[in-house]
Amino acid sequence: SIHGRAPAIATGLATSRRDLSVWVVTGDGDALSIGGNHLIHALRRNVNLKILLFNNRIYGLTKGQYSPTSEVGKVTKSTPMGSLDAPFNPVSLALGAEASFMARTIDSDRKHLTEVLRAAAGHPGTALVEIYQNCNIFNDGAFDALKDRQQAEEALIRLEHGQPIRFGAGLGKAVVRDPATGDLAVVTDTDENESRALVHDAHAASPATAFALSRLADPDTLHRTPIGVFRSVARPVYDTLMADQLDTAHELHGKGDLGALLAGNDTWTVAG
């Protein structure tokens, strides 16, 4: 497909060839800039697509311009004095577009990546997976805090459905809900706080808590970055709805007549 239009092309393919497993491979620039419109509508429609969004926080293929996920102040070929743009949070964006499946993983964590891709493949509807990917040419080391074993232990929050959200050395930190504000916060996992640890529910009908989890990460340092499946819920799948509607129309009205449609009452002759 042409740049940014893959979800639109894939939507046509998925709805016309329901026997296929349709996957979109895209990047942070492709999906969130020129293709942002197509991405959010695929998500809200819940077309049966699997979308892999490789995020390296830079335009890697066009040689180093800043992208919609580049951090504020990022010095690149197109922002020599530092980027002024606030970056997108792809997980937050997807949840706001009513994504029925949203996950994040890291390219170098083979086991976690495999588990997340397997979950996405089995999901009916649109599954979006953000994959943190290093660009060793134009943005090398962007995710070192999440890939270095010692740093990652403190920086990564691994989400598991049905499990309390704990992380850090010896799982010494926990994500809790602030009773005063309702916001999520990170606390030391003491005996007193043990019962307060938030239990992750990827199947919750409301995306509110998943959205709150997506806001925990510091966009500059990436500390407290959640990975895993944020949301996986059942919603009507667009392809199935459309096929059922076409079957009903065929039963009620028989085979359509394209010639009659083109020559119908909603056509006009425009004088030269």
Question: Any key phrases for this structure?
Answer:
32% helix, 272 residues, Rossmann fold, globular, single chain, six-stranded mixed beta sheet, alpha/beta, three-stranded antiparallel beta sheet
Q: Would you mind describing this structure in some detail?
A:
32% of the residues lie in helices and 18% in strands. The longest helix is centred in the last third of the chain and has 16 residues, at 238-253. The two termini are 37 Å apart. The mean pLDDT is 93. α4 (90-96) packs antiparallel against α8 (208-214). It has ten helices and nine strands. It is of the alpha/beta class and 272 residues long. It has a domain at 6-152 and 222-262: Rossmann fold. It has a six-stranded mixed beta sheet, with helices on both faces.
| Spans where pLDDT lies below 50 across 5 or more residues | none
- The CATH class of the domain at 6-152 and 222-262 turns out to be Alpha Beta
Can you count the beta strands?
A: 9
Query: What is the fold named in CATH at topology level of the domain at 6-152 and 222-262?
Result: Rossmann fold
CATH superfamily of the domain at 6-152 and 222-262: Thiamin diphosphate (ThDP)-binding fold, Pyr/PP domains
What's the architecture of the domain at 6-152 and 222-262 in CATH terms? Answer: 3-Layer(aba) Sandwich
Tell me what portion of residues adopts beta-strand conformation. 15-25%
- Tally of alpha and pi helices: 10
Radius of gyration: 22 Å
Largest sheet: 6 strands, mixed
Give me the strand/helix succession. Answer: HEHHEHEHEHHEEEEHEHH
Mean pLDDT: 93
> What helical percentage do the residues reach?
25-40%
Rough shape? globular
Structural class: alpha/beta
Distance between the termini: 37 Å
Question: If strands are numbered along the chain, what order do they take across the biggest sheet?
Answer: 1-2-4-3-9-5
